[in-house]
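Hi V.,

You were right to ask for the full record rather than a summary. Here it is.
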Amino acid sequence: MPAAEIRLGRLAPCIPTSDIARAVAFYERVFGMTKTFDNGEPVGFVVMKRDDAELHLTLVKDHVGKTNNVMHMIVDGADELYRRCEAAAGARIIKKLRDAPWGMRTFVVADPDGNRIDVGQPL
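Predicted structure:
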């Protein structure tokens, strides 16, 4: 099948969390996302959205973050987002804000579960 016949649609990373409520609060406060769906009793799955970004949170009770990035997020306003991450309880800056040689203003932050998010804004 030629590549022209293939179209990829929405892509939403599924991020594990050991505490759904804590993760929802973090992504609301830091990234300004809104919960648009949840499932389970107790809740074990949540969809978060803002602008074109969508994130799925899934409950994994014994989850511990790894040393790899779980997603790369392209943003406008990297400086402001970095300031929010610095101020947010539960956020841990892994790599400080910088202008990278590949043309991105970038940093890496870990959420309260240790999931690493690579944030970038084109220069």
